[in-house]
Amino acid sequence: MAEVIFNKLEKVYSNGFKAVHGIDLTIRDGEFLVIVGPSGCAKSTSLRMLAGLESVSGGEIRIGNKVVNNLQPKDRGIAMVFQNYALYPHMTVKENLAFGLKLARLPKDEIEQRVQDAARILEIGELLDRLPRQLSGGQAQRVAVGRAIVKKPEVFLFDEPLSNLDAKLRASMRVRISDLHKLLKREGRPATAVYVTHDQTEAMTMGDRICVMKLGHIMQVDTPENLYHYPRNMFVAGFIGAPEMNLKPVTLVRQADDCALRLGDQLLALPADKADKVLRHGAERLHLGIRPEFIRLHQDGPADNCLEGELVRTENMGHELFVYFRVAELELTARVPSEQAARLLGNEPGLKVRFALEMDKAHLFDSASEQNISL
Questions:
Q1: Which of 146, 195, 220, 233 could staple 118 via S-S, CB 3.0–4.6 A?
Q2: Which residues of the chain have a pLDDT value below 70?
Q3: pTM of the prediction?
Q4: Is domain 245-366 in CATH 2.40.50.100, yes or no?
């Protein structure tokens, strides 16, 4: 049983700065949970408290059924992979893998078996006799992961382990770590993992669930799909997704039989279900949120919920273009297939463009509380 529970967890430093504000979080047995957020959101601080590298100021941490607040790191049943590989430079890969097991006074044959198992899983068997200086960044990180595997911990902790690698190696290691987690689960070994990153691509591709943090608070914990399609607040809506969700102030306009939104100097019809939620909530100030893929280039004929604007710039991503356009003083982003963009768009700022918005996919946020009132 390797369930991890944060119960009203707090961290206050000696200067009075409160980094973690009483967070509650349950990480299920065998789950791969990613904690993501911008720099300074206390994601690494929370992980270090779980590891026993930072003291707990309030609340409690449980691993399994045991409160671990006052236990030493070595007694918590955890293994941690850091951003820097922290390999002993004078030891071979094999010696690095075996070092912690020797300190624990495990029998030689068991140490050998664990090292060989880790080498097989991570495909580093041919590296066992090399020194760290003879390894590439990706190989060194695999050895660092192997050093965690040999301990057979109850919980794996990863603190931004891929941030020192180039883009191609990061993508490769994302796959390796995800596959490792699945393999350990198939083999019936403890496989609860807590992974901290500021990279939303890592979070979205690796996590069973994602915990989004901001300034020591948890904004939302959910599956990658739900975070993307059903953000609970403006922070999550703007943080998850690239390019980010369009979030623009709008005014609610009540009409005879329905409601509309005024964006800049133009009106957008509001679907009945969303209009009903907005009216019941009674928010005075609103923000419209819509993902760029739900804004379609529309140059010919009439269409519902169209915005007319001026082209600001485009970014060519190969199979699609990110198109930035301005409505009144507001800049919005659309994702347009390259073929369509080539036929209908120039690349001259000021070009008149027309886009249709899929308002059934849009979100409405209370500008004051920043909560999503259209869910």
A1: 146
A2: 1, 256-257, 300-303, 342-347
A3: 0.91
A4: yes
